[in-house]
Amino acid sequence: MVLYRRANRQYVAMPEGEVWKFLESQTKIYAGFPMEDGYPHVSPIWFCVENKTIYLRTHDYKTKTKLARSGKACCVADDGYRYRELRGVIVWGRSRVITDPKLIKHINEILDRKYEKQQWKPSEMPSGWVEERRKEKRAFIEVKPERIDSWDNGKV
Fold first, then answer.
1. Where are the domains of the chain?
2. How many helices (H) and strands (E) would you count in the chain?
3. Which end of the chain is more exposed for a tag (fewer CB within 10 A), N or C?
4. What residue spans of 51-126 are helical by DSSP H?
5. pLDDT tens digits for 94-122?
6. pTM for this structure?
7. Which helix (H) or strand (E) is 58 found in, with range?
């Protein structure tokens, strides 16, 4: 069971449905994983949401892939500029690198559609760079939420 709550006393939390609608509307999330020295490793990453679960696509050699195996993750998305526009979501959950080919194919298709216009095009990049990228192996990380904090200052 996921615990939904407001980020702190001064904020108004988004209802559960709004949390997921907000996350689905975002193009970038910050994903953090604990490192061995106790510091968090945080990086922006493209993502998708499927069945109230967050999926990240990266490469198998990236630090976040190794760290996702720890089983702990924190993901953050926010937007707005002025105080009354600020809103966001923090998700704490269990992470794992997914290996099921059927799930990987499904998530990859969702991500390809979501980022079709933002993804690099081979014709726009140096050929050597494109060749190197094509050799890389993708990795997919699943984050199953356990606790979600949110805020929407437009509701204050």
1. 3-155
2. 4, 8
3. N
4. 63-68, 101-114
5. 999 999 999 999 999 999 999 999 888 88
6. 0.90
7. strand 53-59
